[in-house]
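SEVERITY: medium
COMPONENT: batch folding queue
REPORTER: lab tech (J.R.)

DESCRIPTION
The queue accepted two submissions in a row. Attaching both inputs and their returned structure tokens so the on-call engineer can compare them side by side.

ATTACHMENT 1
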Amino acid sequence: LTSNIQFRNRIDDSRNKIFPTIIFTTSSFLQVEMKGISGPIEFKEGRRIQFKLDLLKLRQHSLVKVGEWRPGAGVNVTDTAAFFEPGSANVTLLVITILEQPYVMLKSRGNFSGNARYEGFCIDLLKEIAHMVGFGYRIELVPDGKYGVYDYETGEWNGIVRQLMDKKADLAVGSMTINYARESVIDFTKPFMNLGISILFKVPTSHPARLFSFMNPLAIQIWLYVLAAYVLVSVMMFVVARISPYEWNNPHPCHAGSEIVENQFSLANSFWFTIGTLMQQGSDLNPKATSTRIVGGIWWFFTLIIISSYTANLAAFLTVERMITPIENAEDLASQTDIAYGTLDSGSTMTFFRDSMIETYKKMWRFMENKKPSVFVPTYEEGIQRVLQGDYAFLMESTMLDYIVQRDCNLTQIGGLLDSKGYGIATPMGSPWRDKISLAILELQEKGEIQMLYDKWWKSPGDTCMRTEKGKESKANSLGVDNIGGVFVVLLCGLAFAVLIAIFEFCYNTRRNMPAERKRKTCPKTFESKCTSVVDDFPSFFFFFLTFDACCRVSRRAEVSKSTVLPQMVPAFFIRSLLFFRFRAKFETQRAPISTPACSDSLQGISQSVQQQQQQQTQQQQQQQQQQQQQANQQQESLCSEMARELCRALRCHASSRRRRACEKCSTHVLGYPPDNPTATPLNGMRSQRSSLGVPTVELPPHVHMHHHAPPPHDYDGT
């Protein structure tokens, strides 16, 4: 076989390359047809036809095809960058991008053309990388304005990814997210920025400050519990102090044998001790017994915790503007349907929710996919406008979100990051520029130049929204009347209440200490004079009853209208007439043995002349008269007392309860009515107790009743 093979060199003048040609002379071998690695193996006139040769370039781990050669067509280079070394400035790459703040933007001022029309973070980054790697570039916008997403219905990619797959561009810069789906069809450099998905939402409208916002640190239930604890501890202190013998003390220490003891913890003092401790002011009351000290100590510990907790939270509730948002994180967003939410159409964020296996994100994707109208937006600007309109949350990359909230105070970020990913520069599959650009990105990150570019394009000059720590502190220190005005309202109400109590105490004390003449102004002198010397004539004696009835009416402070005067006067007239004749007959029978009527000192029933005469008598005559008077008093009642009792008997069935009580008040000053006479008829169905009313019994003169003990002067207070 080798003897039949002849070698001949053929020089290709057009390519300046030598290709060896093997001519087979054996007829059987020339008829072979088969498919090989370089194409179909077929010979014509002893030469191979219809074949191609691949141009390969050695990479780090493999050989990469960079072109091919065919007979007649010559060399076809598919990767022009493979034949250029770094530093050669005569290479111009086609770079595609999308307009998006602050990555790529059109200059708003001036007339520019070419690459000078664009500005932004990615434009500055591209300049630095091109200078370090050594290439020129020409920027164009992607036709459909999309980053690229895989369509399961058509089985095709769109946007930037489609352009790179078709090798219609060399590079793609912008907020191009690196993910698994894109990495399988195109290449990415090292990420120049790390980020995640976050939620953009409208800042909720702050509620107006409440007047009693100082009560916000504690819930309403805690305030009620504290009030209940205050009442309970006060009552408990009172009860324990009463039970413990060590809280009873002698008010007069100099008299060791005194049977009088007192307790400092009255009910009012117990409440005062508890409120003083709660307000951290203390009081002049100190428990002495072990039991009361335990109650006080437990209460002090309780107030320590409550006051400390209230003080710690008061500053935060008053100085920090608390925004109540309807959502706090992605879980809150997924669990409701009132607020719509969506993503950028044909973006990596939409792909993340579509392909996620997390139940919360799957639920969110079903909501977004079925929501009508569509919640997906073609651009970030449209998504931001929908957020500002309200009831819409926009899911987007955190870096873009930071840029927006720095410039619009009506927008804010809700929750943290939903995932972690990065932005990179995209290249066609197997591009030789990927590694060179990746090395340049790492170098820029180590030098801090990428962070400087971030601060240049993200940080808003002036910080108009006061999102820095310094701005927050300056805003937190401002307090107005709307925040703590309720404290002044409580102060004014307390002062007004104290003034009302002071007026009440003044009036009560004045009424209690009023002189007898002013206090009993309803019992005129006419009543006393008629009781002292009862005349025989009908007009004077009848006027006595009218005066006594007027005493009862005025004592009860009853205002009788004109419509009720006449109906009451008719039966009252007959009652008084009957009483007159009864008392007149009885007076005639008792007038002989009784020299003077037995009236009380308070009614001045004994004249001054009789008292002077009695004082001049001898001791023996006084004793005899006293014995006689005692025997007479045992047999009969005082005339004035019987008059008052009989009148009240008659009025019981015709007067109101208030009138009967007034009658009782006026008649209790008469000796022998009714407690001084056990046989007297009780008023209102029960026997009156003057001690409970605060009215002392008035003693008769010594010649009338010697068995009475004269009490200290005391005026009836009328209560």
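ATTACHMENT 2
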Amino acid sequence: MRRSVEEIRRTRVTDIAQRVAKLEWQWAGYIARRTDGRWGLKVLEWRPRTGKRSEGRPPTRWTDDIRRVVGCRWRQAAQDRVLWNSLQNPFFFFFFYLSPAVDVNWLR
């Protein structure tokens, strides 16, 4: 095991990437469960007027990561809090597995 991973465990420092992923997951669930018609859900559903994104490889939207783990019906899955919370660890694994700078073994 790398020394830096040992230091993280010993000092209990939260990795910023892990914190961001957790907050992203929680916010997505919160917004998907809202029923009051506020702007959060409208922002998630927004599409450009032309119906197209820019040419080339478009930047990844944060909902794209959630769709890869949960599927296109992720907003329906978020309605069930137990199901949504059970999908959090697979999302973290997916999120960190794509980042080559992160040692996946320390997620256990």
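NOTES FROM REPORTER
The chain has a mean pLDDT of 77.
No errors were logged for either attachment.
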